[in-house]
Amino acid sequence: MSPLTRRELLGRTAGLAALACLAACADPGAPPDRSGLHPALRTPRPAGAIAFLGAAPAAREALLAARAPDVMVGLGATLAPEAGRMPDFPGEVLLPERTHPDAFVQVEGDDQAECSRRLDDVLADLPGLAVRWRTPVRRDVVAAADSKPLQRNPFGFVEGQTNTADAILLPSGASLVAVRVIRMAHQLWDADPPETQRRVLGRHPDGTWLDGTPPLGTPDFGADPDGATTPLDSHVRTMNPRTPGTPAPRMLRRSWIYEGTPGDDGVVFMAFQNDFSTGFALAQQRLTADALHPYLLAVGGGYFVVPA
């Protein structure tokens, strides 16, 4: 089978252009599950269900009352002006029902079907809110290293963990979160040989770095200044070059796999932070140089405040 060109692939998906913001650096480790922790600091569960909502400002108190250890609520700019509005980024093709919702509700648990039922119950107690889009989600946790879970992304690669947990809370105890719904171009990805895939992501399928460093270790990019081992445009190196004067985006990443209709599957990517400019927005500025860019397409999302 001859490799598909990016133009051919996007032609098959009604001319959608590609954008990248995959969580190739992935989830937080395994912080203790204490009910007083902010939702971003709790250990993520293996399954969930998410709903994007349309809501008037009067719905804020009802949404806040819906929070529980297994229910996270995010408030968009309509309900929390400090969230602001996610700017447009090059190459995205945003679906109205998945873009700039007034709020989102996520339920987490151990079973997708049960999470969907739980989400039904939560939404039933929130009259007057319009469900714009919803989906079941899951995390593909495949192993643990140093007591931290390792997660496989939909392209079949185990992700690393280069999160920060020390720059995600505001003085109020809340957190800012950027949410992106990202479709994945499986045809284009599968047409590439394994060696190309490894060099695009900057890791082996089991999560090992290309220089042999274990998944949770730190590679020595200084010993590879020209990208002979780990290409300079690989996803891991674009997002965090690990060179003096080039900061890593300061955010805590969490990604969830969603599976919709054929051609509509990928990840719901979340990035918790206390400053979009040094977190998510910084990562977005580097995307055009990222070799992973052509394989992904952002179709929705927004900026939110997740209260403590």
TrEMBL record:
* Residue ranges annotated for the Dyp-type peroxidase C-terminal domain, each copy included: 172-308
**Signal peptide, first to last residue:** 1-26
Q: Which domain of life is it from?
A: Bacteria
Sorted UniProt keywords: Heme, Iron, Metal-binding, Oxidoreductase, Peroxidase, Signal
Q: What cofactor does this protein call for?
A: heme b
What's any one GO cellular component for it?
A: cytosol
Q: GO molecular function of the protein, one example?
A: heme binding
**Annotated InterPro entries:** Dimeric_a/b-barrel, Dyp_perox_C, Dyp_peroxidase, TAT_signal
Q: What does the similarity note say?
A: Belongs to the DyP-type peroxidase family.
How is this protein named in the record? Answer: Ferrous iron transport peroxidase EfeB
The scientific name of the source species is: Actinokineospora spheciospongiae
Q: What is the lineage of its organism?
A: Bacteria, Bacillati, Actinomycetota, Actinomycetes, Pseudonocardiales
